[in-house]
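Problem 3 from the worked examples.
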Amino acid sequence: MAKKDKKNQKKSVDGNSGKEKEQPVEGKAVLAPENSFSGPAIPPEQVIFINKKSYEKELARLQVELVKLQEWIRYKGLKVVVLFEGRDAAGKGGAIKRITESLNPRVCRVVALPTPTDREKTQWYFQRYVAHLPAAGEMVLFDRSWYNRAGVERVMGFCTEEEYREFLRSVPEFERMLVRAGIILIKFWFSVSDKEQEKRFQARIADPTKRWKLSPMDLQSRSRWVEYSKAKDEMFAHTDIKQAPWYVVNADNKMCARLNCIRHLLNLIPYEDLTPEPIVLPPRQEEHGYVRPPMTDQTFVPQIYQPDSKGEDHD
């Protein structure tokens, strides 16, 4: 009987599901899911439950606000840098795509640097990133950033121990220097569970249009999950600074992750609505004797696809 009671002491009831859940056993390490904590408590009246339809509606509303933010950045000459980091297949690219969809690429641009060249490997580590920092009136989104050194380079052995330690010493001062120079620096970490990551990897394998997203490094990240977790924890311990804190996005649900990320980004930069008055389209210029060259003198793209009888045209 005592043996049975001892066994039962290792379990308790989950108040949410009513099911028994395993408790940590003394002497045994238990790795919690990376996104098991969903962030600060939100008052129930502020929580918005979404489905596909409401997601599209809310995304459209937030994208209008992003355009307002863009115009404010341009008007005030702000310099904004947003870093997107996280596990492979965590949804960083999808969030970036939704942010930039309606924005002017001359104001908001994406930087996704490839593997450093032999020449770049001999430079100061931050040098190739500095070249892409914004001028006044610009916002730059880094799809992965200088934090590669604390993640993939650390785990895969692409940097030495001294290079890694120097990075952890240098990056807080580097980021404080950026902030002192007037740059608004925002850092997002997209957190995804191992189960959801595997699901997305399998979806990429099955979809020819997404298979290119899988690289040998992605596959290695699965077999080194715990090593990446430890590297992320140490990175946060050194770089979650007051001047440039990390904002963790629970990314197991892509729709919620995108909306939460965009909403938080908008909340971090105070802006005003500079939407201009409605534009009146001027009348078309009269031809005044202009004669168009024969259509046969031009080379047209073959019209393989043509409108059906309804003649509908959708963007």
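Problem 4, a separate protein:
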Amino acid sequence: MENIQKPLWHSQTVMPSPAVLKRGPGRPPKVAPLPVAGAADRAPVEVGVRVQPLRGLHPVRALLREWLLELKVMGRSSRTIDWYQQKMDWYRSSGGVENLEQLNAFELKRFLAEQQERGLSDNKIHGFFQVIKSFANWCSREEYPVDPSVLRMRPPKVALQEMSTYTTDQVKAIFEAAKVGWPQLAVKILLGTGMRVGELCNLQLEDVEDDDDAMMFLKIKRGKGAKFRRVPVSQRLRREIIRYINRSRPDSPAPNLLLLTSGRPVSVQTACELLQRLHKKLGFPLHAHKFRHTFATEYLRRGGEMERLRRILGHTTYSMVMRYVHLDKGDLGRDFDQRAPF
């Protein structure tokens, strides 16, 4: 029988030409692994440049830079991107793998088990898993080689904890301790609307929608997940916002609603430092998200509807709303003697 020679592009030892490598529309060309003589020949990877395999491997460091760049393009906030980077940097400095091909379910379980032994909370361990799994999912979508065992791995359990809220006396003490001006208005908006501290600091004057004969609304133009929503304002909070704009807000070209006396916008860090000062002054811890818990709990306790609360908080599902809502034992015991069979 006559031996028919195969074309060179079918050979297992000869690499195909760049024109033969198939690529989808809009996707960077897939790079074939190339052998490298030594570590000295490795060139630094620039942000935005598709990662070139080294010794047939894909460095996690370079892939991480490409992933974070995509998160920025997709509209993730700088705080979210920093949180992702901190988690990945901690993983890499704690004995994490150097190349993507070494990342598998056993390696991820090893890292999470070490964090459990260090005494980290369930939420922090779940955060590590969430970030590393998101990174692996992105690598898979970009057609980088990912061990399937990582993609199949289930998240660790997180023990449900009772959502803490501020008491009526604590709220009163916070309002009295905060200075008149932006500090006092900031804590009142957090409590009266349930918005996040980042959303509060991004509010601008044009986001205050006030009709003389109707309600006031605050526009959240870029909330979590880049979602837009309007938040209603009570008449009491409406009075405080108008009073701050007319009496306390300094003249400044900055468009933000909350301004320092120097005219600069109030940043998230400045707002958090305010809560720390109030903590030292009052003697109990203050957290921005605890205002959100308090708002959600009080809203339902006073007869508010779950659907409206979901829209006010900016969540897409009711399960997320229920994580913020905590009814205390007084609500659980109300009318219990009349309802219980024994």
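Solution to problem 4. The CA atoms of residues 198 and 268 lie 6 Å apart. The beta strands are 208-210, 216-220, 229-233.
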